[in-house]
Amino acid sequence: MAKLYRDNPLRKIAWEDFHTLDAAEKGPFFLREGRPYHALNAQQFTRPILDGLCNLATQVRRIAKTRGGVLFLQDLLCEKRAMLYFAQPSTRTFLSFYAACQLLGLNPAEVRDTTTSSEIKGESPEDSIRTFSSFFDIIIMRHPAGGFAERIAWLLSNTDRPVPVVNAGSGKDQHPTQALLDIYTLQRSFEKREGIERKKIAFVGDLARGRTVRSLAWLLTLYPGVKQYFVAPPSLQIGPDILAALDRAGMAYELSSDLQAVIPEADAIYMTRIQDEWDTAHESRDVDTNRFHFRVADLARLRPDAVIMHPLPRRREIEPGVDGDPRAVYWRQVRNGMWIRAALILTLFEREREIERYYQDLTS
Ligand code: NCD
Predict the structure, then answer these.
(1) Mean pLDDT for all residues in the chain
(2) What number is the average pLDDT over the span 143-161?
(3) What is the pLDDT of residues 165-218, one digit of tens each?
(4) Catalytic site residue 92?
(5) Which of 175, 200, 310, 341 is catalytic?
(6) Is the CB of 169 under 6 A from ligand 1?
(7) Residue to mutate, 166, 175, 271, ligand 1, most ligand atoms under 8 Å from C-beta
């Protein structure tokens, strides 16, 4: 049993064979015995894993309300150290991982500016990250190159010190932990409306390059009856790979460029900014994005029980006057990020049982 458990699927496949697999085929390689060992793409998550993470996040959130609970949590992972390697700008993702580590007593260290590391002396990023694994027990990383976190997970798996790797945003392709916090937010928002199943979720903005949307659209295929609307200018519409995944899963969806028509339909509106850092020739500058903004005047046409979400940072796509409406949940989303990331870290280190036991004592 122990030997089977140590089985590391990433050790058994050559990089050349692995990296040509599609995201769904790669998913199982990030699990061990059906449990997440790395957190690298949305496709590795199953519905039971998601439900488990959301439950655990709620338990951690409630335990952290008492002094005794905070002391218990801070002792849990005090023997572990985390490296936060962020080679791309980040505010919320970085800070919520940092706060989640502190909550669990896990010591965080950071590299955010690669010009201060030996990469400037010509060291490859691969070697730098292999160095991290000598000192740290988990690597949480954001990188502009799509698939780079997967490459690191594969490389470390083939050394004698493999450690879990968490993708905190990779290129234009994936942001799986943002999708986890979005699912947790949706689940909490629809708690009294029979959960996420059968809800209508509209994504608005730059869906071609918004990695949070790409990861979340996939996770939503695990919730029967959900209908997704992709509302974007034609040149920034969602990628065919995501639509093919929805087709395979038999999910309903609609492509639109008319936000006004979608607002009264939606249970959740997920706004995003234009990702112009990926422009190669200012192509998004010429797109009229005004029609993809949510304004105070639109609130009157939104269902009374709908929610407005945003991964943030925002620019002009949501008028600040919307923030005070109880249906605007984007600031709650930020805080949920800390809870679900704490739940994920606990799961990667197989410490869920201790939380469950403490929670049972607390509530009995
Ligand atoms: C997003 C990202 O980095 O992809 N931000 C985040 O992590 N909350 C969204 C964005 O940058 O637009």
Answers:
(1) 94
(2) 93
(3) 999 999 999 999 999 999 999 999 999 999 999 999 999 999 999 999 999 999
(4) yes
(5) 175
(6) yes
(7) 175
Q: Which residue has the tokens 């190669």?
A: 280
pLDDT beyond 70 at 6? no
- Enter the CATH code of domain 176-334: 3.40.50.1370
Q: What is the CATH number of domain 2-175+336-356?
A: 3.40.50.1370
Q: What is the residue whose two structure tokens read 């607002």?
A: 263
Which pLDDT does position 5 carry in this prediction? Answer: 39
175 is catalytic: yes
Q: Is 93 noted as a catalytic residue in this protein?
A: yes
Active site residue 332: no
User: Same CATH fold, 176-334 and 2-175+336-356?
Assistant: yes
pLDDT in tens, 226-276: 999 999 999 999 999 999 999 999 999 999 999 999 999 999 999 999 998
Of 92, 130, 198, 327, catalytic:
92
Find, among 164, 127, 175, 149, the residue nearest to 35 by Cα.
164
The pTM of the full predicted model, rounded to 2 decimals, is: 0.96
End-to-end CA distance of the chain: 34
- Alpha helices by DSSP H, listed for 199-320, are 211-219, 240-249, 259-262
Q: Which residues contact 251 (CB under 8 A, 6 or more apart)?
A: 220, 221, 226, 227, 228
- Delimit the domains of the chain by residue range: 2-175+336-356, 176-334
> Mutate which of 182, 312, 330, 341 to test ligand 1's pocket (most atoms within 8 Å of Cβ)?
312
